[in-house]
Every structure is written in C-alpha cells, then in structure tokens.
Amino acid sequence: MASSSKLKLSVFTVATPDMTPEQLCEAAAAAGIDGIEWRCKETSPHLLSEPPSFWGNNLCTLSPSADDEEISRFNQAASKHNRQAISVTPYLTCGDVEGTEQIMRLASKLGASMIRAGVPGYDRSRNYNDLYTQALTYLQEVEQLARTYNVKAIIETHHLTIAPSASLAHRLVSSFNHDHIGVLYDPGNMVYEGYENYRMGLELLGPYLAHVHVKNAGWQPPAQQAQSVQSANDPLQSIEWSCGWRPIANGQVPWKQVLRDLKAVGYDGWLGLEDFSQTFDTPTMLQTYVNQIQTWMEEI
C-alpha cells in the first residue's frame, strides 16, 4: 500500500445483486477493481421471482453445489475481463466440516485463495465459553482442510457472533498457523458491535490479518424521538438507538484513518467493497469506491 497505484481492490458480490457474474466482471474491470469475492449460497426457488436483493435473489451468487458448467461460467466471466477470483464467501455454520470442505474444493476450482469459515452466533442463549470451545474444535479441522486444499480460511469480525472485535477474533485464531487461518477485518460491522481502536486491533492481529471489507454504518435514535424536545430534555427518558448502513464516506468509520492504520501495519492485501447503503446504482457504486480509496490514499 505504498501508493494508490499499488492498491488491491476487490468487490464482494453480495453488494451487487442486480448484476450477473458476466455483468459484474465487466463493470469491475471498467471501474478498476481487480478482485472478485463470489457470494456463495443456494438460492431458494421461491426467491427467484423476487426483485434482486443482497441476501435474497442475488444474481451474482455461486451455488455451493455448483457443477462443472456453473463453475466454468464463473471462471469464464472473470477471465474474459481479466479479473481475479480471490475468495468464495459462503454462510457456513460453525461445525459444518463437510460443508467447509465443499467450499474449499469449489475455491480451488475457481483459483480463489480464501473462503469464509463459520463462527458461532451469540444471542445470550448459550455461554460464550462453550461456543468458544466449539469454534476451536471446528477450526482445528478447518486448518487441516486449508492445508490440504491450499486455501486460507478466514473468520470475519461480525456483530452477533463470538468474534465481533479484532481482539475476540484474534483469540479464536491465535493458536493456529496464520498461513491457513486468518481474520477478515470489517470495521463497518464493528460499528454495530466490537469497536476497538483500529490501529491497536490491526497491530494485535498481525500476520492473521488476511482481508479487509470496506463498508460503513451509523447509529441514530428513532426519528420521532429525535424530534421530540421532551425526550431530548429529559435525561431519564430512554432512547432506543438503532444502527443502519451508511455510504462509505460518511458513516461512523473514519475510513481515511483506517487506511492510515492499515498502511502503518504494512497491510498489502485486498480491500473488498461491501456497500449496503444503496446510495448509488451498482456501476456508480463500483467507480465511486475506486475514486474514494484512491483519493484518500493520495491524501495520506
């Protein structure tokens, strides 16, 4: 990350649901985004008649059970526009070793170097310590698979899981070989839960820092309460704040500072776009992302 020309920019196709793989690779090439992270999930038949959406009828999604024809389609879409498949990103359940191997196999066929592994959710119904032990047992098997397939397994800092922060993600991975198990650092998710000083978290992760997702979010009170003078003036009045996705430039994550911190720790991996703010149409979102990152890197 010595200069903007050296940046490695990618896009996670969960954020481009209205584009086919072919359209996405063409648009990514036009914008100057080199890496593709393929969303990987079965699409239920009842979703196919719905309008495109991030987590519903996403047209840029690879099936975990993809046959040779489907794999060839995704490979050809990337190769036609000289884009690189860097990750197959599924929604694995912690403990699903068979499913994890299936994704590893798929990643190998696509030439991708990473997959996202499962992490237990946390909803107060089970003790964290039990979930942590379960995750370690799973990751021990995942590490063996990663070694076998030469595909790194990464866990994401994500709210409502046992790894919402850099430090809790590090606790999960620190006993494993960083060549095989790493962390996907997502500051946007950490607005919801898990915020820690960015540079400190990156320093802690060290060689386990495998990938970064770029999106943003922000907290706000309900509109009716924000407009209520009585609520604002009453220190005993409860206000239920909520978090939602924001444009990358003006959410609570100070991305220019995060880029400084990434540069300070010598990160030279990918920066993956995952914008859920719906501020721009998809081609504009891709181009705006490239322009923003390049501008910020020139300024720092």
UniProtKB/TrEMBL annotation:
Keyword Isomerase tagged: yes
This protein's name: Sugar phosphate isomerase/epimerase
GO MF terms, alphabetically ordered: isomerase activity
Gene3D superfamilies given in the database record: Divalent-metal-dependent TIM barrel enzymes
Xylose isomerase-like TIM barrel domain location: 26-283
Keywords: Isomerase
Pfam family, one: AP_endonuc_2
